From TrEMBL:
Matches recorded under InterPro entries: Spore_II_R (IPR014202)
Keywords, sorted A to Z: Signal
Lineage: Bacteria, Bacillati, Bacillota, Clostridia, Eubacteriales
Segment forming the signal sequence: 1-23
Name of this protein: Stage II sporulation protein R
Taxonomic source organism: Candidatus Avoscillospira avicola
Length: 203
């Protein structure tokens, strides 16, 4: 059978779309496998004012003072955090009260979409993650993101990161993925595009 020029173009486009779909599926699975081993922390300030941004960091510290020891040796990190939500919220409320701030605070644990984030010693691709979200007041200020499990918020050295990754059961490939952002910059961007496409398709 002889293909016309238009049919060749259609066939080429179909093959390209199929290859893109396969690659996108692989990237999504890779991100999902990583996300299943992580719990992110998302602290949202009341506003972008200098005072509210400073309060956000103080609340962050109060929350981490509860979560970090809680996560050490936790057999089920999600359940441990879920059970501790009242304690975490109380720590945030007490922190605000000590600062003389009357803003309310809301603490939730659920799924949340994250963009690609580059931290000091590692990076994480965009996607859906289990997220401990702390919203202060109106929640209209800049965010502060990190990883509450494994405890990577202040993983300053590669050995800190490796220990935390081992706690979460990361494979060597997953450790490489998050610790070599230069090598995986294009891959992370592709993951972000896939996540945006998924969100668009879901409406």
């Amino acid at each position: 059978m002889v293909l016309t020029k238009s049919k060749k173009v259609i066939l080429a486009l179909a093959l390209a779309l199929a290859a893109t779909a396969i690659a996108a599926t692989a990237l999504l699975r890779e991100q999902q496998a990583l996300s299943e081993k992580l719990i992110r922390l998302h602290v949202v300030a009341n506003s972008d004012s200098e005072a509210d941004q400073a309060v956000k960091l103080r609340v962050r510290d109060a929350v981490l003072a509860v979560t970090e020891p809680l996560m050490e040796g936790a057999e089920d990190p999600y359940a441990a955090l879920s059970d501790a939500l009242p304690e975490i919220e109380s720590a945030a409320v007490n922190c605000l009260a000590a600062l003389g701030v009357a803003d309310p605070v809301t603490v939730t644990l659920g799924q949340e979409a994250y963009p690609t984030r580059v931290y000091e010693s590692f990076s994480l691709p965009a996607g859906q993650y289990t997220s401990l979200r702390v919203t202060i007041g109106a929640g209209e200020g800049r965010n502060w993101w990190c990883v509450v499990f494994p405890s990577l918020c202040f993983a300053a050295t590669s050995s800190d990161l490796e220990r935390a990754a081992a706690t979460a059961g990361f494979s060597d490939g997953e450790v490489q993925l998050i610790t070599e952002p230069d090598s995986y910059q294009l891959k992370f961007k592709a993951m972000e595009w896939v996540e945006q496409l998924r969100q668009w398709l879901l409406g």
